[in-house]
Amino acid sequence: MTDHQPGRVPYAASGLFPAGPPRRPTWREPHPVTGAAVAAGGTLAAAWLVLFGLLGRDVAGYAWWTVIAGAFAWLAAFALVRFGDRGVGTGVAIVTAGGWSIAFAVVVVRWAVSADWPMW
């Protein structure tokens, strides 16, 4: 007794190309990252950093307030990426990193101009 019907050549898939329905279902993200969400998170983070940066009376104060505000913003970004809207969390993280870079540049420029480390 043979496995195939008369007149048909038995077919064995090589595995290179999928044959038939996929074995696993396609998973779609329930809340995909959008440009609007990233922009909203970035705008909120920029406002947050500006408000805290304005609390500083000098370069050191500005830098420390920016570091503290950025740390809280990144905690919020981590929570948003894990449990909330990933787009907003991404925007917050990107703008916070940019804000820290600006604060670092201000400190370095002041240090280069005055030859005195301004942070303490």
Question: How is this structure best described in words?
Answer:
With 120 residues, this protein is mainly α. The chain has a domain at 35-114. It has helices at 35-53, 59-83, 86-114. It is elongated, with a radius of gyration of 27 Å.
Assign an overall shape. elongated
**Classification by helices and strands:** mainly alpha
Helix content percent band: 55-70%
SS strand fraction: under 5%
Protein name: SPW repeat-containing protein
Keywords: Membrane, Transmembrane, Transmembrane helix
Organism: Micromonospora humidisoli
Transmembrane segments: 33-56, 62-81, 88-113
Question: How are the elements arranged and paired?
Answer:
Layout: H1 35-53, H2 59-83, H3 86-114
Transmembrane segments: 33-56, 62-81, 88-113
Organism: Micromonospora humidisoli
Keywords: Membrane, Transmembrane, Transmembrane helix
In short:
The chain has helices at residues 35-53, 59-83, 86-114. It has 120 residues and is mainly alpha-helical. The chain crosses the membrane at residues 33-56, 62-81, 88-113.
Features:
120 residues; 3 helices; 61% helix; mainly alpha; single chain
